[in-house]
Design brief:
Elements: H1 4-19, E1 28-39, E2 53-61, E3 79-81, E4 84-90, E5 93-99, H2 109-112, E6 118-122, E7 125-133, E8 149-152, E9 158-161, E10 180-185, E11 189-192, H3 196-218
Antiparallel strand pairs: 1-2, 1-10, 1-11, 2-4, 3-6, 4-5, 6-7, 7-8, 8-9, 9-10
Helix pairs in contact: 1-3
Length: 220
């Protein structure tokens, strides 16, 4: 029994250490984007025309306000998110990216642009953002190469592809396929919360740590 107790305590200690880091996840939120194409030269790589709809979403984790797992509310204080996933669909093309601390991991700056992507919320609403999707190679050999796409809040929420002089739609270049338009952001909605069972396992893990320490002192 003198041998079994420390072994049992050690097993619970290992369980506790393995579970504890996994039980600290914040709720996950999703913000949906809708928009309208306002500039679309003939022959653009997305096959869209003026007036066509676009859509996207931004997914991220952040603590709720108040911090209550049973009734999470999106924080009302100013909040800036730099780690998030984004998707944007326009015509026949869909852009996808995951940003960590404002950048795309393992992606050269020359391709993905400088870090600095972010989402800023105030009073629960999106008030600022910068999302740069890197250029994408064609899925099929006959498909066009998709230029970089940017979601930006200049004057109002905009999207524009980075070709020739199409910077923020100020100098459209029809021959280069400059496409842009407006965006509208919905309110963030909760899509997942830490499971109560996970939080309970955290308690078991912490109890295992205390149990192991107690047996360690008794055997000294």
């Amino acid at each position: 029994m003198e041998i079994a107790a420390p072994l049992f305590a050690g097993a619970i200690l290992v369980l506790g250490l393995s579970i504890a880091p996994q039980a600290s996840a914040d709720p996950t939120w999703q913000l949906d984007l809708t928009g309208t194409v306002t500039q679309a030269p003939d022959g653009n790589p997305y096959g869209v025309a003026v007036g066509d709809a676009v859509s996207g979403s931004l997914t991220f984790a952040t603590p709720p306000d108040p911090i209550t797992p049973t009734d999470p509310i999106f924080p009302t204080d100013p909040t800036t998110i730099e780690t998030f996933s984004a998707t944007f669909t326009i015509g026949t093309a869909t852009y996808n990216a995951t940003f960590v601390n404002g950048g795309i991991p393992n992606c050269d700056v020359a391709i993905c642009g400088n870090p600095g992507n972010f989402l800023t919320f105030d009073n629960g609403a999106l008030v600022n953002l910068l999302v740069r999707f890197a250029p994408q190679d064609p899925i099929q050999p006959s498909d066009p190469i998709l230029p970089a796409m940017v979601l930006d809040p200049i004057d109002a929420f905009l999207f524009f592809n980075v070709v020739a002089n199409n910077t923020m739609c100020e100098q459209p270049d029809g021959t280069a396929g400059g496409v842009c338009g407006t965006l509208v952001a919905a309110e963030p909605r909760l899509i997942s919360v830490p499971e109560p069972a996970t939080l309970a396992l955290l308690g078991v893990g912490l109890a295992g740590i205390g149990f192991a320490r107690r047996f360690g002192r008794l055997n000294q």
